[in-house]
Amino acid sequence: MSQTPHPQRTALSLAASGVPVLPLRRGKVPFGNCTACADNACGGRPIMKTPGPCRCAAPCHGWAAATTDPAVIVAPAWAAAWRKAVCVGYHPGGAGLTVVDLDDAEAIAWARATLPATRIVPTTRGEHWIYRGAMTSRNAVRPGVDVKSAMSYARWLGYGSGTMAALPDAVRALAVKEPSPSRRAPQTLSGLLTGGQGECPHRTPAFLERGVAMAEQRITEASSAVHATVYRTFLAVLSRHGRCGCLTDTHVTRLFTAAQAKGETARHCTDAWTNARTALGM
């Protein structure tokens, strides 16, 4: 993807449409804090917290510097940064958006099988899938996939194509950490499948089959954080396929078998499945 010819001009246009922007330097990263704000000495707008009282004239504090104010964008301190900038960054959460950053072909294939269609922006190596709605950001939710929204920034690469869809539960589930399992009586698989009476999203049986197969593959290929991978995979499957009643004991057994092949116990699988249903209000 080529560099933006005039980053400041692009930034002003985006800001006018309500998208908070910031300059990105070489490496597609924000400019470092100025001397007065180094190590958060100013006491405001630390990168990992809600923007606070700092009113530094420079584009400090990473994503928290993003602004829609044209007077800030053209101010002298920002103008100096724009001259060195290689592209425009924006704060998706500040614009009420969520970006699913897909880094490679495998990640794109997973998204096509798992997530509802939405606006797609091509990137250097993959795609940005952009949804309407903000959420918690989280990196490395699965191989090649980051979620960028609140307290995060993304590189502006154009408007892309397709109709932007509302943020689905399947994406929200990616940023949810597994809760501590509560003590409960053992449950049968049939007991874990009750209550699915929602609208059916499956165009053909092959759609559900492909979703379950991709989930099995995700668990099987996990090289670390197996507990978290199993839980997030269960969340994604239930979010996409669990409300209509199409999931059967056979499908769940396949997922449990894949998890147990990676060293998970039957009890952990049951806890993770039940916790996922609870997180989704099922």
Give a written overview of the molecule.
The protein has 282 residues and is an alpha+beta fold. It is built from 10 helices and 10 strands. The strands form 2 sheets. Strands 4, 5, 6, 7, 8 and 10 form a 6-stranded mixed beta sheet that branches. A 4-stranded antiparallel beta sheet has the order 2-1-3-9. α7 packs antiparallel against α8, α7 runs parallel beside α9 (249-261) and α8 packs across α10.
Basic shape: elongated
Query: What is the C-alpha radius of gyration, as a whole number of Å?
Result: 21 Å
How many β-strand stretches? 10
- Give the distance, in angstroms, between the N- and C-terminal Cα atoms: 42 Å
Name the structural class.
alpha+beta
Distinct helical segment count: 10
Order of secondary-structure elements:
HEEHHEEHEEEEEEHHHHHH
Q: Work out the strand percent.
A: 5-15%
Major sheet description: 6 strands, mixed
Helix content: 25-40%
Average pLDDT for all residues: 84
Poorly predicted runs are 47-51
